[in-house]
Amino acid sequence: MTVLVAPDKFKGSLTAAQVAAAVAAGLRTALPGEPVRELPVADGGDGTVAAAVAAGFRRIPVRVSGPTGRRITAFFALRGDVAVVELAEASGLHRLPGGLPAPLTASSYGTGELIAAAVAAGASRVVLGVGGSAGTDGGAGMLMALGARVLDSSGADVPLGGIGLASVSSVDLSGLPTVDISLACDVDNPLLGPSGAAAVYGPQKGALPEDVAVLEAGLCRWSEVLGASFATVPGAGAAGGVGFAALAALRARVRPGIALLLDLLGFEAAVRDARLVITGEGSLDTQSLHGKAPVGVLRAATAAGVPTVAVAGRCLLPPAEWRAAGFAAVHALADLEPDATRCMTHAAPLLRQLAEGLAREHIAVS
Fold first, then answer.
1. Class (C level, CATH) for 2-39+266-362
2. Is the pTM higher than 0.85?
3. NCBIfam families attached here (predicted)?
4. How far apart are CA 137 and CA 239, in angstroms?
5. Rounded alpha-carbon distances, angstroms, from residue 29 to 24, 82, 183, 343
6. I want to staple 297 with a disulfide (CB 3.0 to 4.6 A). Which of 84, 245, 279, 334 is the partner?
7. Residue 216 — φ and ψ, nearest 5°?
């Protein structure tokens, strides 16, 4: 029987693979010879491709357009005929030149280029993670890169970005490839309205109130042309409306990100041989309880009858809440080091130290 280490990233400090390696190192120091398996996970946002690569997928570079059109090198992961594409790799906020927001002009075109490259490499199934987008273009850019024509009333291509959507008159989808798309999505926002892509997420991407109004009007027009019935589907508002385009034009299937990734990474088979699962993320808080990676791991492990312990940079949940969720224990770096900055800069050695104590408490006595 093994100890299965399946954490998400500690955002701003360590990747999921680095977290898993640090925890595993601490376990092996405390209990030499104890079988430990590392299986870093992700929920469809930042780190999704890295988690796939850690599970045996190949990391493939592609030159694509960033959110403002600047050429960048992004990556997707491939194993057999299955590809993992992370929207943030090509079209994410961290890809904005100089970090300057471009709420009206940022596009998902590069994400479409990544999907096209995956299909060209032999993928017939694409898992698309849609967290962290920089724009609100309704996924129009993604469809254009895949071969769709998005046209204005004169028959010309509309401009990229949310600013171009108000002028959409027709769409020609005949050039789209045949590919099975699974959307790894952890939000249930519709495309339009007060809970929609522009109103909720536009300000996070630098949109002023007047920009939000422009984006909302454009998305409304876009939905009328592409398929208004898909605009109300939970998840249509994901990634500035990329979810909507994937649903309406690519006939994607939506699944909770962590559940989809756990299937892809082979978690069910791995947990069968485990006597303890260790998961975690940088901040364990109320958001974590709404389907984020650690709780997804917890639920899958619980279904297999295996107890789960969480590690975190900090835990903002009272013990009653994390116990009610099902965790056997929660251990945070803040319990070892009260200086939050040091917890960020020295996360790896602190995690190793934390794991040594965890091993003695939860494994040596079991």
1. alpha beta
2. yes
3. glycerate kinase (TIGR00045)
4. 9
5. 9, 37, 39, 21
6. 279
7. -60, -45
- Residues in CB range of 77: below 8 A, 6 or more apart: 49, 52, 53, 57, 58, 59, 60, 83, 84
Report domain extents, the chain.
2-39+266-362, 48-257
Instruction: Tell me what the pLDDT averaged over the chain comes to.
Output: 95
CA 162 – CA 277 distance, rounded (Å): 43
124-163 pLDDT tens trace: 999 999 989 999 999 999 999 999 999 999 999 999 999 9
pLDDT in tens, 290-312: 878 999 999 999 999 999 999 99
Domain 48-257, CATH? 3.90.1510.10
| C-alpha–C-alpha distance, residues 330 and 358, integer Å | 10
Tell me the average pLDDT across 332-351: 95
Backbone CA torsion sign across 143, 148, 153, 158: positive
β-pair partners for 74: 62
Rounded Cα–Cα distance for residues 31 and 174 (Å): 59
In the chain the beta strands, taken as DSSP E runs, fall at 2-5, 36-38, 58-65, 71-79, 82-86, 125-129, 149-151, 170-172, 180-184, 253-255, 274-284, 308-315, 329-332
Contact 310, 331 (CB under 8 A): yes
pLDDT exceeds cutoff 70 at 111: yes
CA gap 341, 98 in Å, rounded: 24
Q: Which CA distances in Å does 307 have to 108, 259, 275, 310, 331?
A: 40, 18, 7, 10, 15
pLDDT value at 365 more than 60: no
* DSSP characters over 90-130: HHBGGGSGGG---TTT--SHHHHHHHHHHHHTT-SEEEEE-
Amino acid sitting at position 310: A
E strand intervals along 271-358: 274-284, 308-315, 329-332
